[in-house]
Amino acid sequence: AATGPVRTFSIGFEQEEYDELPHARAVAERFGTEHHEFVVRADAVGLLPELARRFGEPFADHAALPTYLLAQLAREHVTVALNGDGGDEIFGGYDRYVNASRLGPAAALPAPARRALAAALRRAPGAGHRHAPGARARRVGDLLALGPAEAHLVRMSRHSWPRRAAAYTPEFLAALDDETTAAVITDTWASSGARTPVECMMDVDRRTYLPGDLLVKADMMTMAHALEGRSPLLDHELVELAYALPTAMKVDGARKKIALRAALRGRVPDALIDRRKQGFELPLAAWFRGELAPLARETLLAPDAAVAGFFRTAEVRRLVEDHAAGARDHGPMLWTLLVFELWHRQVVGGELLEGSHALAA
User: Fold this and answer.
1) All residues at 6 or more sequence positions from 52 whose CB lies less than 8 Å from its CB, including other chains
2) What Rg, from alpha-carbon coordinates, does the chain have?
3) Which of 40, 147, 184, 343 is the most exposed place for a label (fewest CB within 10 A)?
4) Contact present, 27 and 54 (Cβ < 8 Å)
5) Mean pLDDT (whole number) for 337-350
6) Closest listed residue to residue 20, CA positions, set 66, 78, 85, 86
7) What is the distance between the alpha carbons of residues 56 and 71, in angstroms, rounded to a whole number?
């Protein structure tokens, strides 16, 4: 048991739509914790070479950067920290679960009507970030003609296969086996014994996204600072309880995490329980149109860029220029390419880039 106030830690951003610090402070004040926080700015991207060396693979989940900084902040005060990993996967917290449920009636339409609706949604106007209404509508259109497993594959793919294939060089494209990659999701879906489509999505996420991304990210970034991270929501008894709950106690209509919210009602302010879900994301759209625009151009379009051996230079240039002009939000793709470039230079090419250092054996 703690002998003093519980210490809490949070990371925020200058861009208000990405910043959760006010909400974290409200919880800290409610429970009287010793609260610490840090604001991440675009210059933190200088840590990317270090992260590339830590992972040893092109790990493109951009939340790795704030997770690294959060672990660094926490380690200044504690040696063990608790996180909330697993809560969305076992209690139904992702918007995609609600969206899939809402898509059900449209997916049941006759094929001609479904295709017409999908085509109309794909033509939705509007640029801006990936959460803008037009971008959301286009993604829904892409999902309508697919089966449930294939639709979930699309939801869990940061970049669609056609978009990736258009960016690859012919030689690299010929060497890829996309069916094997897709089977990570589709085979797991086929083997699920879940009772409902939403439960099936949650089961697949628990067996793929959680251990393959979220827990890897948390483990690697906390270990980088000799901090022990623990995930109490993944206690096996709590997971077993969540599995036993009916779907309606997790996701129902537009409501998510129903049972978990009910358990916290009266303990945590209602305004925090009922507010819109917010992911742990970087403001990539703004960064790549601002402070990071020169870095993206100079790194990805350099004459000796490693990405040129795998991605068509003309397509990389189009992504950089379209994003800088505000035509489309290519922030996640530019981040992925940047991570790949820095990983390849260091891990494959053996360079020691500024912002990195040799790791202890």
Assistant:
1) 58, 339, 342, 343, 346, 347, 356
2) 21
3) 147
4) no
5) 90
6) 66
7) 19
How large a percentage of the chain has pLDDT more than 90?
A: 63
**pLDDT at residue number 249:** 95
Q: Does residue 244 have a pLDDT over 80?
A: yes
Q: What is the percentage of the chain residues whose pLDDT exceeds 70?
A: 95
Bridge partners (DSSP) listed for residue 255: 252
Crossing angle for the helix pair 331-343 and 313-325, nearest 10 degrees? 130
Q: Residue 81 is inside which H or E element, if any?
A: strand 80-82
CA distance 301 to 349: 17
300: CB partners within 8 A, 6+ apart: 307, 316, 320, 334, 337, 338, 341
* Cα–Cα separations (whole angstroms), residue 338 to 128, 332, 334: 21, 10, 6
| Per-residue confidence (pLDDT) for residue 138, from 0 to 100 | 83
Q: Which helix (H) or strand (E) holds 107?
A: helix 95-107
Higher-scoring residue by pLDDT: 133, 230: 230
